[in-house]
UniProtKB/TrEMBL annotation:
<keyword id="KW-0472">Membrane</keyword>
<keyword id="KW-0999">Mitochondrion inner membrane</keyword>
<feature type="compositionally biased region" description="Polar residues">
    <location>
        <begin position="1"/>
        <end position="20"/>
    </location>
</feature>
<dbReference type="InterPro" id="IPR052632">
    <property type="entry name" value="MICOS_subunit_Mic19"/>
</dbReference>
<dbReference type="GO" id="GO:0007007">
    <property type="term" value="P:inner mitochondrial membrane organization"/>
</dbReference>
<keyword id="KW-0496">Mitochondrion</keyword>
<feature type="compositionally biased region" description="Basic and acidic residues">
    <location>
        <begin position="38"/>
        <end position="62"/>
    </location>
</feature>
<keyword id="KW-1015">Disulfide bond</keyword>
<feature type="region of interest" description="Disordered">
    <location>
        <begin position="38"/>
        <end position="63"/>
    </location>
</feature>
<keyword id="KW-0449">Lipoprotein</keyword>
<dbReference type="Pfam" id="PF05300">
    <property type="entry name" value="MIC19_MIC25"/>
</dbReference>
<protein>
    <submittedName>
        <fullName>MICOS complex subunit MIC19 isoform X7</fullName>
    </submittedName>
</protein>
<dbReference type="InterPro" id="IPR007964">
    <property type="entry name" value="MIC19/MIC25"/>
</dbReference>
<keyword id="KW-0519">Myristate</keyword>
<dbReference type="GO" id="GO:0061617">
    <property type="term" value="C:MICOS complex"/>
</dbReference>
<feature type="region of interest" description="Disordered">
    <location>
        <begin position="1"/>
        <end position="26"/>
    </location>
</feature>
Length: 236
């Protein structure tokens, strides 16, 4: 009497289980890689924008500090000149004294009155000069800020356009989300998600075929040509 061998079906069942497990692990790895790649690109873009923003803020702060120092120097110099003029008035030996707000009594102290008037003229001239320089500094600061702002905006647009070209969209996103949820809910029984995994793999393979078809079409395939891909025949 011959013994019936059962090793064949068991071996096939074990092989199928192992294959499903391998597919599940491969799917997990692919999903994790896609998520990590997308996150890395977003972080890189954010870091570049933050760096450019800090550089712009630093340049703006430096310009404001330089402008403030220039204004202070001008004010100090102007006050020193006025103090010298007041000191000169207080030292005049003329009866009744003099003031910067009224003409000097030339009939009392002609040399000193003339000197005082000349000094007052110089101070007014310097004051006008400082005001003109201050206006120029403010104009330059405004122009510099405008240019740096435009440069920053242009750089930000270039970075955004560059990353948009390399933007990665997950394939079969709905199925991917369902698979991730299934794995979370069945951490000890991942084989229960094998049906979703198989459906996801078919979706990914179909997307690859469509991508290959798009590449072939972009290379100049004529209309009404027929292209046969594994499991897919298309005519356009």
């Amino acid at each position: 009497m011959k013994e019936t061998s059962t090793s064949g079906p068991k071996s096939q069942r074990y092989s199928g289980t192992y294959g499903a497990s391998v597919s599940d692990e491969e799917l997990k790895r692919r999903v994790a890689e896609e998520l990590a790649l997308e996150q890395a690109k977003k972080e890189s873009e954010n870091q570049k924008r933050l760096k450019q923003g800090k550089e712009l803020d630093g340049e703006k702060t430096l310009t404001n500090e330089q402008l403030t120092r220039a204004i202070l120097r001008e004010r100090i110099s102007n006050e020193e000149e006025r103090a010298k003029a007041k000191h000169l008035v207080s030292d005049l030996p003329c009866r009744g004294g003099l003031s910067l707000s009224s003409p000097a009594p030339a009939f009392l102290c002609p040399p000193l009155a003339k000197q005082l008037e000349e000094k007052d003229r110089v101070i007014k001239k310097q004051d006008a000069f400082y005001k003109e320089q201050l206006a120029r500094l403010e104009e330059r600061s405004s122009e510099f800020y405008k240019v740096t702002t435009e440069q920053y905006q242009k750089a930000a647009e270039e970075v955004e356009a560059k990353f948009k070209r390399y933007e990665c969209h997950p394939v079969c996103a709905d199925l991917q989300a369902q698979i991730l949820q299934c794995y979370r809910q069945n951490t000890q029984q991942t084989l229960s998600c094998s049906a979703l995994a198989s459906q996801y793999m078919r979706c990914v393979n179909q997307a690859k075929q469509l991508e290959r078809l798009s590449q072939i079409k972009s290379q100049g395939v004529r209309i009404n040509d027929t292209v046969a891909l594994p499991g897919l025949t298309l005519t356009w």
